[in-house]
# Entry
Amino acid sequence: MEGKLLAAKTKSTAPNRISFAKIREPQEVPNLLALQIESFDWLLGNDAWRARLGKNERPDRGEIPKTSGLEEIFEEISPIEDFQGSMSLSFRDHRFEPSKYTIAECKERDITYAAPLFVTAEFTNNVTGEIKSQTVFMGDFPLMTPRGTFVINGTERVVVSQLVRSPGVYFERTVEKASDKDIFTAKIIPSRGAWLEFEIDKKDFVAVRIDRKRKQSVTIFLKALGWSNDQILAEFGEYPSIKETLAKDNVSTQDEALLDIYRKMRPGEPPTKEAAQTLIENLYFNPKRYDLAKVGRFKVNKKLGLDLDLSKSLLAIDDIVGAIRYIAALHKGETL
# Structure
């Protein structure tokens, strides 16, 4: 009898609220979970995302991406090649098997609510052209509940996004207390990859910091990229700080500049021209290691007055030149 009473109490519902207000609310409360759930649907590329893609049900937040998040990730990392480039491994056609347990069962068993992820792996011999394909198990992928939460080891949790600085180019002015002089800095921050920082110190020396390592002369860095003294003067001759920095560097050729940079970034290793070129290319001009993302490219274009395509996610010479000109102009006292 007591069990029936408990069951009856559980099934009871709260009375419906009746509003006698004459003025309606100007705007209904939106579905606050939609952003998280729809984003996770896009990551998985599930049926709910495909249905929205077919109906284009998101006019207020722009066009729905045509490629799922996992597809973009696998396309980004594929192919994975060996050092000689003779073998490569690619991933495609991911799929999920149904979860073994329901959400309630995962909470009862203290396990994670997840689904097994399988992908098609293609191993290619680039010399002979032979391709071997196999479906492989990548691991259990945590799933989001309809409440926008995750069940991790039986506990329901909410994933909170970390606030990080958006990719783009940033300029800053600080005052050096000892000399009371302005110090100007510029940072090109990618979505993924090495930072590139420029600084004009109290002695009007223009330096560059590659991948947050030791400071080096910005003119030596430009020479390592293939610029000559005449090209540097033609581009930056109107700025005294650049001219003074150029006069102080003792490097005359690209090879010398590359070796000088490599010695400072890899002290203790034997410097070679090829190793130095590979180092710089991998830091800023390799799509597998550097990515400005569309947001970063848009912000760099807007700040530096460039018109590069938003799909160009690698660092461009125009970005470097624009950042140097901007910081040199600030140091000169020009308003941009």
